[in-house]
Amino acid sequence: MRLSNNTFVKLILFKEHECKAVQQYLEEMALKGWILDDISLRFFVFKKSKPKKLKFTVDIFTDLKAGEYREYCEAGGWNYICQTNNYIIFSTENDNITSIQTDEDILLNKLSNSILKNIFAQIIVTTYIIYTIYKAFFIDFNSDAIYGISLLFLVMISLIFVICPIIDCIYDISWYIKYKKSLKSEEVIVYPTLKRLNIKITYTNLYIITFIITILTLIGSLSEISIYISFLLSFIIAIISLGKIVKIAIS
Q: How buried is 17 (Cβ within 10 angstroms: 0-12 exposed, 13-18 middle, 19+ buried)?
């Protein structure tokens, strides 16, 4: 989303095991002339610049305090950009610079704990969403009050609210299983790719936009015309998002 000619904002919800994909995303944006300036509440703020070939690192600071870690990395030639939660981001134009490398054992231990917590939270939230939708359709459903375009709108947003978190949850569980197997067999760990991150960004945006449309519809007049407009908007956005996902997947 552009805030001005020189400012671009993008919501990116990522986890510890997706840091490498975020690095690639930032490098691609830099090549397009958008340089990361800050992160606020997972909103990445980019500033317009000349296209640059930059190398980024999105790292998890562990045993060192943020200030100490920043000094350590800057001494190695990295330029500090920003930090958020447990992540700290640096960039450099030097291709031959020594990579910032968190101790592998500490990083893997942190990844194991983090991904399990995320999966557990996702399962709880997804289960609650599915139960709420099941209750709405099969327990409290009133065919006299909900029919026609209202029913179509309810079915569509229900599918979006269920499918998006299920996809995320299944992927994380799948990655965790592969990750544990790689550790056991001492193979190289394969982290999520930029393609996977772009697909995630697309369906996350779909989820959030649909949620906003639903809230606005509920606090509005709930007239047939307003529900029709909400359905049409949600449908168009869903089709556009699906097209983007297919395009990313086959590219």
A: buried
Secondary structure E strands in the chain = 2-4, 7-11, 34-40, 43-48, 55-60, 79-84, 87-92
How far is 52 from 49, CA to CA, in rounded Å? 8
DSSP state letter for 86? T
If one counts every other C-beta atom within 10 angstroms of the C-beta of residue 201, the result is 18
Is residue 81 within 8 A of residue 37, CB to CB? The reply is yes
The tokens for 206 are 């779909």
pLDDT in tens, 116-129: 887 888 888 888 88
Distance CA 230, CA 16 (A): 35
Q: Are strands 55-60 and 43-48 parallel, antiparallel or unpaired?
A: unpaired
pTM of the model: 0.84
Distance CA 166, CA 161 (A): 9
Neighbours of 111 (CB within 10 A): 20
Task: Report yes or no: 160 and 130 within 8 Å, Cβ to Cβ.
Answer: no
**Which tokens sit at 117?**
């917590």
Burial of 248: CB neighbours in 10 Å, binned 0-12, 13-18, 19+: middle
Tokens representing 216 are: 């606005």
Report residue 15's pLDDT band, with 50, 70 and 90 as the boundaries.
confident
Residue 17 DSSP class: G
**Looking up tokens 């134009």, which residue turns up?**
93
β-pairing, 43-48 with 34-40? antiparallel
Measured in degrees and rounded to the nearest 5, phi and psi for residue 83 equal: -145, 150
